[in-house]
Amino acid sequence: MQNLGFTRAGSAPDHFLLTPDTFVRAPLPGMRHATAIVHAAPASGAGFTAYTVEFATGGSMETNAAQMFLYVLDGFVTVDHTTLSPGQYAYLPPASATHIAAHGAAHALVIEKLHTDLAGQTPDAFTGDEQAVDPLPLDGEPDIEVRHLLPNDITFDFAVNTMTYPPGATLPMVESHVMEHGLLMLEGGGIYRLGDRWYPTKAGDFIWMAPFCAQWFGALGKMPAKYIIYKDWNRHPLSGQKSDL
Length: 245
Ligand code: UGY
Ligand code: MN
Known about the structure:
The protein is mainly β. The protein has strands spanning 10-12, 15-18, 32-40, 49-62, 67-74, 77-79, 82-84, 88-92, 99-102, 106-113, 126-129, 136-138, 141-148, 158-165, 181-187, 189-194, 197-202, 206-209, 215-220, 225-232. It is globular and about 40 Å long. The chain has two domains: 23-129, Jelly Rolls (Sandwich), CATH 2.60.120.10; 134-232, Jelly Rolls. The termini are far apart. A hairpin with a 2-residue loop joins strand 1 (10-12) and strand 2 (15-18). Strands 3, 4, 5, 6, 7, 8, 9, 10 and 11 form a nine-stranded antiparallel beta sheet that branches. An eight-stranded antiparallel beta sheet has the order 1-2-18-15-20-14-13-12, with no helix packed on it. It has a three-stranded antiparallel beta sheet with strand order 17-16-19, with no helix packed on it. The structure holds (2S)-amino(carbamoylamino)ethanoic acid and manganese (II) ion. Residues 175, 177, 181, 215 line the site of manganese (II) ion.
């Protein structure tokens, strides 16, 4: 029985929620035996791309002129010569010409951003493991664990963090800030306030938040809620304008 047009997904000019029932798959250039679910892109108003790659056995993909952050959701993905398992990730600088391949079926979240230069420096490639990153308490809500997956280094122009909420924990304030967000819900669920709407949200959902979109989350249910979240970072709000700062 189909849903007669009903979905939890919703959108407004400053945000959207995409639920798995709305996902559409299409391969991107350079993909073989793999396909992408593009969640956010310049076409949607985002300054980055975020997509889930679904690899079939032996599937592969290439990098491009953008920086790439790849986080393994399930299965095993080899980036150059390093095999990554779920929760492990890679950062690749612009135009790294890196070959990415899966052994069996695998899923990965990919984020790409054109690098905003600062004094001519770009970060080096590296791989990491979320489990090896010490959690930090969130300001105002020490029960929320924040893991910064990229180093605290000014050459990075974006950040990717995971945030884990125990049941009942909430963001301590309604945030509104200049950075935009792309967010994939990894575990559990709750209620996300976006602008002046409230959305039931659970694992598998993707959310985009424009700069200054009012945002708040409260975890519901009996298990922790966890998401991975992108934001632009470390750059003056006027960078990217004609006369860069
Ligand atoms: O990093 C952040 O801005 C984060 N606290 N935002 C969010 O969880 N919606
Ligand atoms: Mn935020």
